[in-house]
Design a protein that fits this description.
It is a single chain. With about 425 residues, the chain is mainly alpha-helical. It has two domains: about 200 residues, Vanadium-containing Chloroperoxidase, domain 2; about 160 residues, no CATH class. The chain is elongated.
Length: about 425
């Protein structure tokens, strides 16, 4: 049985968060090796589906050779790459392409996870002692360009432009860079195969329920997301939230009244918090929090890849669990129950219980706190602020947020356990000299 925090206590916590919503200083970190944990898609650095050590470029097809030669030629003209950290470069390109394609948040999280897991696994493979030291930028470019090409086939021109700039950092078309590109591409193929079989193309064939307190609308967003293949959880239904409050119960009516009361007394600060967490896709917000620290601390590519892989699988799994809950109960949104309710932002077109922002932010905060333990409290505060923003905005009930946060924290803890699997005595990052 879980312990409930009273609405008054949670409200006070939320107000305290509002007073410290600016980002805390970044604490110095010492990073462990990226290979402390096993890969997430390939079976090992010497997976039989990958080129043999020392022969990474031997199996290149004429088409692959021609593409690499073209990109290398273009990179020679470019001269300089897009940035010193390949993980950040490809992460930000994923955001650019996802925003351009108007991906809903669960699909945005899926894209981030596929790209970042691909880079992480490819760097594990390239870091094996039998392969020598293959250039990291070309490894990451080989993987990310293949995965992003699968996700955004209409943007191959932009993807290859970035790939050329990244190859430039490895001195273009020498044999080592080609082998690195081919190894990365092979890992990318494995990740694409995973993406093509994760169930994200499943079609909803059921009938939405009807009744008091049930969501009403047409074309709900991603009703099959809760059935997608997870990364760390066994399935989207492995962690079961408590049921929503019964329609018309005292708790239900209290939550409903609170949404109305908040809508009638919003402060400018609360409205700003709503927009902070709504104007950018929530997975992108947490990815940028990590990018800022990678850049500020000049973290290495391998450690950055590991951090991004686990942050993004946590959010992807959290979305899958949350969507499984949403389409299990089909709970109505506040505006569907409160006549004349004024919201700060439009209500998303899917059921209310539980809150996606609350769930994925709690999961993300757990992972970020593991990576940067000196900032653990800050990330927890950001997670709470994200949850409260949905109440401030008038698009979620308190119970949506509280239960989403609780379950998201459990998911985050599961991912942290996986992070520690390779060497449980070591954190990804820890404070110290």
């Amino acid at each position: 049985m879980r312990t409930h925090l009273s609405p008054a206590i949670l409200w006070l916590l939320a107000l305290s968060v509002c007073s410290c919503s600016r980002e805390a200083p970044v604490a110095p970190a010492r990073l462990a090796a990226s290979t402390d944990s096993p890969p997430l898609v390939i079976s090992s650095p010497l997976d039989p589906g990958l080129p043999a050590p020392g022969h990474e470029s031997d199996g290149a097809s004429p088409e692959e050779l021609a593409l690499f030669q073209r990109l290398s030629s273009e990179s020679a003209r470019l001269g300089e790459g897009e940035g010193p950290n390949a993980v950040v470069v490809w992460n930000r390109l994923t955001k650019e392409l996802g925003v351009g394609a108007k991906l809903p948040p669960p699909l945005m999280a899926r894209a981030y996870a596929l790209v970042q897991v691909g880079i992480y696994d490819a760097l594990i493979a390239s870091g094996d002692r039998l392969r020598g030291r293959l250039p990291e930028h070309s490894v990451a470019a080989g993987t990310a360009s293949r995965v992003l090409g699968y996700l955004f086939p209409a943007r191959l021109d932009r993807i290859q432009e970035v790939a050329s700039a990244e190859i430039a950092l490895d001195q273009g078309s020498d044999g080592t860079a080609l082998g690195a590109w081919m190894l990365g591409s092979a890992v990318g193929r494995a990740v694409v195969a995973r993406g093509m079989s994760d169930g994200s193309d499943a079609l909803f064939t059921g009938t939405p329920p009807a009744g008091d307190g049930i969501w009403t609308g047409i074309n709900p967003v991603l009703p099959m997301c809760g059935t997608w293949k997870t990364w760390v959880l066994g399935s989207g239904s492995e962690i079961v939230p408590e049921p929503p409050y019964p329609y018309g119960s005292a708790q239900d009516l209290q939550d409903t009244r609170e949404v109305l009361d908040v809508s009638l007394s919003r402060t400018p600060e609360q409205i700003a918090i709503v927009h902070k967490w709504a104007d950018v896709s929530p997975p992108a917000i947490w990815n940028e929090l990590l990018n800022d620290r990678i850049v500020a601390q000049n973290l290495g590519v391998a450690a950055s890849a590991r951090a991004h892989a686990y942050l993004n699988v946590a959010m992807a799994d959290a979305f899958i669990e949350c969507w499984a809950c949403k389409y299990k109960y089909w709970i109505a949104r506040p505006f569907q129950r409160i006549p004349g309710l004024v919201t700060v932002i439009p209500t998303p077109n899917f059921p209310s219980y539980t809150s996606g922002h609350s769930t994925i932010s709690a999961a993300a905060a757990a992972v970020m706190g593991e990576i940067f333990p000196a900032e653990r409290d800050f990330f927890a505060q950001q997670s709470l602020e994200a949850a409260m923003s949905r109440l401030y905005g008038g698009i979620h009930f308190r119970h949506d947020n509280e239960e989403g946060s609780r379950v998201g924290a459990i998911i985050g803890d599961r991912v942290v356990e996986r992070m520690r699997a390779g060497n449980p005595r070591r954190l990804l990052a820890s404070t110290g000299p």
